[in-house]
Amino acid sequence: MKIELKVDEKILNVPRLLVILLSLFLFVYMLKMNFFVPLWNDEFAYSFIFRSDQKIASIVDIIQSQQILYNNWTGRVLVHFLVQFFLWQGKDIFNIVNAALYVSLIFVICSYTKIRKFNTMEDLRMFLTVSILCWFFLPVMGQTTFWVAGSVNYLWAALALLFFLLPYRYILENKKIIKDRWYTIISMFFLGIFTGWSQENASVIGVAFVGICLLSLFKQRIKIPFWFISGFLGCIIGFAYLVLAPGNGARKKVMYFDLSLKDQILNFFKSIIFLLYEQKYLFLLLIIAFIFYFLKKYIFSKLSFWLSLMIVFTGLLSYAAMIASPEFPIRATFAGVTMFLIALTFLLPVTAKKIDIIILILLIPLSFSMYKTYSQYHTVHQETQKRLEIVNKSIAEGNYDVKLPEYSVKGNDRVFIFDVTLNPSYTSNQHFAQYYGLNSVAIDKPTMMVELAEPTENHFQLYYDIGQGIREQDSSKAAIYNLVDGNKLYFGLPNKPIYKFRFDPGIMKADIKIKKIIISNTDETITYGAPELIKMFQPVHDIENIKLKDDTLIISSIGYDPQVEFVNDYTQSVKFKVEFEKPQSGNFQVFYDTGNGFNEGQSVIKNLIGSQVFEVSLPVKELNSFRFDLGEEINKRIGIRNIIIEEQNNEIITLNGPDLENRVSNLTQVKVDNKRREVLSLETTGNDPSFTVTNLLSE
């Protein structure tokens, strides 16, 4: 028996089959990615009724939580309702919905140039083009398409916006893709409310786009449908509820430092410059596409040109609206970028067959990028499972103060990691601990904690010399962005011997006030108060002075790259002391050789004022040779009684008398005038006198 399967090509042909297969692939890929992404800080927090210890257990709990949010934190109660709903129902359901909505975003973007059946080669080219554009240009995809809270706030809000605007886009050509029916009028009203009440940047685009459409219809004398009015009214109502929420002002007071209008505007323009740099390739492509279209196709299709210009304008408005916000994170550009991508579908020659080769070429880096992102999230998933094993084991053993290993994967644009930190009191740590019923949680790593007298918005960096000098790769960064970050800076340290620290206390001219520093690892905790710190800190660059006031160390920075160096009990160091016959004044300097010869980077200078002792700590494990510079005075007699070197293992080398005289070599601008054997008597003959002592370890 012969079985034949006949398929109507109008229903299923090769282009449509390929679109279906590609859609299924993207859906499965996104589903798997969403499965890999663990819960982060916001998910832990939103699993509870806001600002309570009660986990969400019903719709009533979610409504109660949104009421508190609206009055105390944010106006985005509709999207956060969805976040809490899916966290209550289970992340597996979210994973399926989110993967489907990402694929839907691609289809909707494709539909703005024309309503498509996705059954032609042109449709296939458009689908592939938009898929490539979305992957490479959607901002910080890790935050906006994979992360639960971020996806609902940005991907879902943008998709609702595009669905809402679609009939408005076509009515500009007097094409009515929906008719005036009671159900369309009501549906557009509520979709308008959701769009306006979802996310600020998407709301601005919605109101502006429909407003421009309204003016265009008046100009063209086109009859305005009732669904148009109801949708616009709903969007305005939603927008008003979003921006006028009491929680917006309350959150600003709790989170952000007091900013003058001038500072807020300045911060906005700094953010714009940063965003233009981060999204330079997207804007460059837009400019080229506009120029190309204007020169080649404008005369044939003016409407597409002006439509794309209008779409870009509303996208840019969403950027400009952020001037009202104290911060402008790059994820907030998501809705704006989707508008730019829609404009590109009008401007790029997607219908031309010659674009096929470009698409095929771009599929290569796309495949590599998707595979790399998949591998990184797979690693995050595996390490998350191991972490949960540590948490469960600790709870079983009655230990509710848990230390977790760091993720080996570092965050990037596509891999979002909002992890617990070194600071047990940080927001993400507290929410993690609350979710799993712990007292505290932190990253298991040696740390240096710098406690400031008060929180100050600034960026800080700690360098640690592990035998290779001061290098960028051997450093740890901390920052205070807002009041929630508190006044404690936590820096991670390596599980290696450290010979010296360099602390960069900020990136601006200011007084940095430090109460104490605590260094801790599994074996010990060392605390240094301000009186101890002032003895340790040596200014290196852009430091006017370091002073002590009321148990607070005040570092006065006079530039944008202040630096201090120090060694302490935690570092591997050698104590170096020179005892003079008489009090000395001036700049004395000791150089230590770690294999690269004597250089300024491996030296310690100290200004003596009537002191008989030059005493410093050298950031080395052991000292084999040193060079000692005797100030800058000419024809000066200097007597040295002892040079004492105390190494980490408490071994002490004392050089004095004839032994010291025999050790001295490479005398530069100085001569020995030894009439008394118990003192090394030197006389300087130039303004850079020095001598060297070598082979200390041969004894």
Automatic annotation (TrEMBL):
Keyword ATP-binding: no
Superkingdom classification of source: Bacteria
Bilayer-crossing regions: 12-31, 93-112, 124-141, 147-168, 180-197, 203-219, 226-245, 265-293, 305-324, 330-350, 357-374
Keywords from the named record: Membrane, Transmembrane, Transmembrane helix
Pfam family of the protein (one): DUF6056
Protein name stated in the entry: DUF6056 family protein
Lineage: Bacteria, Bacillati, Bacillota, Bacilli, Bacillales
